[in-house]
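From the shared-data thread, chain only:
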Amino acid sequence: MTYKSKLIVIRGNSGVGKSTIAKKLRNPSDRKIAIVEQDYLRRSILGEKEKKDGDNIDLVFQTVSFALSRKYDVILEGILSFSRYGTILKNLRDTCPENYFYYLDISLEESFKRHATKPNSHEFGEEEMTQWYRPLDLLGFTNEVLIPETSLLDETVETIRTQTGL
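Structure, as tokens:
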């Protein structure tokens, strides 16, 4: 099946602002926009640790596909590491011709600073973030846009909004 809605994927390491960007993209819009949070599906819905071939990978695919089939534009956000999620991201890209991929290229030190401002910052800290950190975990898609650390929140939101037409 080929979907006619927009697929916007925002990837990056833990604590860099993916969820905040997704919510700011949806808030002023009158479009049907679904936000699919990889962490929410994995941790809250399934109670699953990040692991190779975890059930959450299929759940992410099914949730995005469901929303696209109902004519929602979808913002999928998460760490979505290439090694674990690359195949489903390629499959989603192939079924949704209007797709946009963004990678937030944020240093580990800046990730710590941003994470400290989050309401859930008590749930994990620098030690875990250091273990999870993968610099430049790019997909290799020709349309993947690298958002640099120097791009402020509102700049990043405006860039994505302009490029995607949200």
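Strands lie at 6-12, 33-37, 73-78, 98-105, 144-148.
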